[in-house]
Amino acid sequence: MISLATAQPSRCPDPTAKAIELAYLSFERPTLGEAERFLADFGLHVTRRSADTLWFRNAGRSPFCHVVKKAHKARFIGLAFRVATRQELEALSDLPGASAIEPMEVPGGGERVQLIDPAGFAVDAVHGQAEVEPLPHREPLRLNSPETHSRVNDTQRPPVAAPETTKLGHVALEVPRFQDTCAWYAQHFGLIPSDVQVLPDGSPAVVFMRLDLGTTPADHHSVAIAQGFAPHFGHCAYEVVDADAVAMGERWMRERGWRHAWGIGRHILGSQVFDYWNDPYGAKHEHYSDGDVFTADQPMGVHEASRAAMSQWGPVMPRSFISPELSVANLCSGQCLVNGLNPFFSVYEF
């Protein structure tokens, strides 16, 4: 029996705004060429470039989903949500520390308000971006089952190529102020907790938060937040058309010499078929397919945290997947250290 004496992440009944889409992620990298080579093999396409910035898109209608800026050090900057109305931008701009509404000189244009979450990550709220024509991609393969044959006198031959990413799905973050950060995303962007993983004493360690789209189904999570001892980028995830695309991506990335992180498998929470790869700077990027979608009335699930609880099948999550970098800076920032261990780290490692 899980003890739930500790408060769990919850919904906000009247958020400042409601995010309707995870819009883009922003990174800094010392070498734009290496960043571009990895992301092209991963399945993203450069849609604009300047002397110090690359904007990437996927096959969907978003004008861009991934930004890489030239800098001396590799760093995750933050994320952005799309909101439905300019009035929501105005409400967000009134928050302490928020920027004024400003025009965006980026593909698709639009306006934004810049905020900082309790972990120190930059969070943009954007509105008014122009959509683009989707890129062509193959349809999901038609599958035969023992009793239903959807494919007769036909064969399966998916192309050997970089996987066609169709959507930015989610981002996972480790944060030192777990409860404050969860509450911030619920209060200001209306995110809903789909599932929470708890430690043996009932303390929440990981939460998967989805968009509140009412009766329209939303991905199981757009943001995953884990208890950590310092702000840290966990991974980002892009959806592909089917499990064969995940597997073909595994072949494509491996043949091009990229470093594998974990997979192929199927998650328990969210149900995605997944495969993770490290970019040249150690940041994890996930291909996934067949994820769960929930409407707003789906209640939150509570589960014990463990490495075994991370996948239904496939390799057990390797220790290297969640091991934090043991640096002086990280150890000195240990606001969440308990007996010298990060709680999230200790549950999954031992």
Description:
This protein has 350 residues and is of the alpha+beta class. The chain has a 9-stranded mixed sheet. An 8-stranded mixed sheet has the order 2-3-4-1-5-8-7-6, with helices on one face. 17% of the residues lie in helices and 32% in strands. The longest helix has 13 residues, at 243-255. It has one domain: 2,3-Dihydroxybiphenyl 1,2-Dioxygenase, domain 1 (Roll). The chain has 7 helices and 19 strands.
Counting DSSP H or I runs of 4 or more residues, the number of helices is 7
Overall tally of domains: 1
Strand order of the largest sheet: 15-16-17-14-9-13-11-10-19
Could you say which overall geometry the principal axes of the C-alpha atoms support? globular
Largest sheet: 9 strands, mixed
Low-confidence stretches: 326-350
Derived from helix and strand composition plus strand pairing, the structural class reads alpha+beta
Task: Lay out the secondary structure.
Elements: E1 19-29, H1 32-42, E2 45-49, E3 53-57, E4 66-70, E5 75-83, H2 86-93, E6 102-103, E7 111-116, E8 122-127, E9 167-175, H3 178-189, E10 192-198, E11 204-210, E12 218-219, E13 223-227, E14 232-239, H4 243-255, E15 259-266, E16 273-278, E17 284-289, E18 293-294, E19 301-304, H5 319-322, H6 328-332, H7 343-349
Parallel strand pairs: 1-4, 5-8, 9-13, 10-19, 14-17
Antiparallel strand pairs: 1-5, 2-3, 3-4, 6-7, 7-8, 9-14, 10-11, 11-13, 12-18, 15-16, 16-17
